[in-house]
């Protein structure tokens, strides 16, 4: 089995590597110190199993696992945590597996054996992990570009615009398409984005002004780019209130 280790602490990565080296059927193909590295290396190395720390700076293990689950053939993820109550709250029902630090060889072997054949419920859990309440908002948007996953930091996103079954994500580096509903994005990112139309959400920090167009309707002018997006009649008052609050 090809295994990838993800932990922000070097001693933890070294301990897991040492334990895996003592097992005949395991090969460590990559190590990562944060979630962003984990997503990129998972695509490059295509591991069978990922041993993933939960609490890491930047992108934590929960979000990284959600992005990794979008791979064509996602690896099984075993979460590694020092917080037993957190593991039970998040993964008790559909966990691929979890280990408590410090990791013991016997428990690691058991978890690896259980993770060899993750069932549909387990994979589904990675796509929509139960976090005991409202799902924590992601820090990145994940898009499939030419067969690879591309991570876009949320602070770089200008707006989301729906077009039939796809949503265009306009960001600092261009634009990509994702297969997510605008409603779900609005619920997840309500603190950072505002709906201006049934087909558009705009990042709150990208609003420049709202102006009338030649047809008598309203448009939002985005900061820095001067790009314009239509505001529907039902959302004009809400956008006006927001702009006045700035």
TrEMBL record:
Transmembrane region(s): none
GO molecular function, one term: phosphorelay response regulator activity
Coiled-coil boundaries: none
Superkingdom, natural source: Bacteria
Gene3D superfamilies assigned to the protein according to its UniProt record, in alphabetical order: 3.40.50.2300, LytTr DNA-binding domain
Record domain Response regulatory: where: 2-116
Pfam families attached to this UniProt entry: LytTR, Response_reg
UniProt keyword terms in alphabetical order: DNA-binding, Phosphoprotein, Two-component regulatory system
Single biological process term from Gene Ontology: regulation of DNA-templated transcription
Designated name of the protein: Two-component system, LytT family, response regulator AlgR
């Amino acid at each position: 089995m090809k295994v990838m280790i993800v932990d922000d602490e070097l001693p933890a990565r070294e301990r897991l590597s040492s334990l895996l080296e003592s097992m005949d059927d395991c090969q460590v193909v990559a190590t990562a110190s944060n979630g962003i590295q984990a997503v990129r290396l998972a695509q490059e190395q295509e591991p069978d199993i990922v041993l993933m720390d939960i609490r890491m700076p930047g992108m934590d293990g929960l979000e990284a696992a959600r992005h990794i689950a979008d791979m064509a053939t996602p690896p099984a993820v075993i979460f590694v945590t020092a917080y037993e109550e957190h593991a039970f709250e998040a993964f008790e029902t559909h966990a691929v597996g979890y280990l408590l630090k410090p990791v013991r060889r016997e428990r690691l072997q058991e978890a690896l054996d259980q993770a060899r054949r993750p069932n549909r419920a387990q994979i589904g859990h990675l796509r929509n992990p139960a976090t005991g309440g409202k799902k924590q908002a992601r820090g990145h948007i994940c898009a499939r570009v030419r067969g690879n996953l591309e991570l876009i930091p949320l602070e770089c996103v200008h707006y989301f615009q729906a077009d039939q079954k796809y949503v265009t994500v306009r960001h600092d580096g261009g634009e990509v398409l994702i297969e997510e509903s605008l409603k779900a994005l609005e619920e997840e990112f309500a603190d950072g984005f505002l709906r201006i139309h049934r087909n558009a959400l705009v990042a709150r920090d990208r609003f420049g002004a709202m102006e009338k167009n030649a047809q008598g309707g309203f448009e939002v002018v985005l900061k820095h780019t001067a790009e314009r997006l239509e505001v529907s009649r039902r959302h004009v008052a809400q956008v006006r209130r927001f702009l006045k609050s700035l």
